[in-house]
Amino acid sequence: MMFSQNKKLVMQGLLGAAMALASASSMAASSWGLDGCSTSTGGVNYGNVYTCGSTGGTSANVTVSAFGSNAGVYDVAYLKQNGTSYGFGVASKDEKINVSAPDHSMDNNPGSTVPDLILLKFDTKVALNAITLGWSQSDADITVMAYDGSSAPVITGKTASNLRGTAAQGWTMVANYGDADPAGATGYSSSGTDIRYVNSSNVTASWWLISAYNAGFGGGTLDNLTDYVKLLGVSTKDVTNNNNGRVPEPASLALVGLALVGAASARRKAKKSA
User: Fold this and answer.
1) Is 155 domain-assigned?
2) pLDDT class for 184, splitting at 50, 70, 90?
3) What angle do helix axes 2-23 and 250-273 make, rounded to 10 degrees?
């Protein structure tokens, strides 16, 4: 009797684990407003980092940092909070912390190989859904990439083209977002009016890169206008059983299969003893 009871508990545990694995990749849609982040590490300095709590959905945080040009390669930059309803801009070491408008935004001026970028690190893997720009001028083309490397991404010392480099770098090009026709440029937009829906392939990652557009990242060519944008908010979407387009890992399949086989065996034995 005790053996049967223990076996029942084991089977319940296996089935529970199987169900957990089957739903582990489900994520709640959430949002983060980046104009109200109150926690800053590093103060008014290059390499400062903000921690931002969600404004809707999950309780997960996102940490936000910036990179920009330093003598033609990436280096830590000053993440500039531009006040309520505007969001984050970037001041690179080449631009200096007190850079004036419009270069206090995330921009690709001058049109170098090192456009300003903002790096987002979420507490858990998420599928990015929308990016809200708090302000833009001239044009507002952006690049979005996701990182699935085994350790934190290395950005310092790279350029746009060799940041992505090969697949070994760990970055996945999600897409460039904007208008390839200069006549259709965004022009000036006021706070929060420009929302870009991204990531149609439902890539999931903990690290996300949002940058002023540069052709060096790949992903197709847009116009060559100068882009100035400020990042006001981001949101994620529900993604169920997604593994970046890959099939479930063998270990996960094995555990699910073991649970199902065990359950069938238990049912057969129960029928024989009835």
Assistant:
1) yes
2) low
3) 140
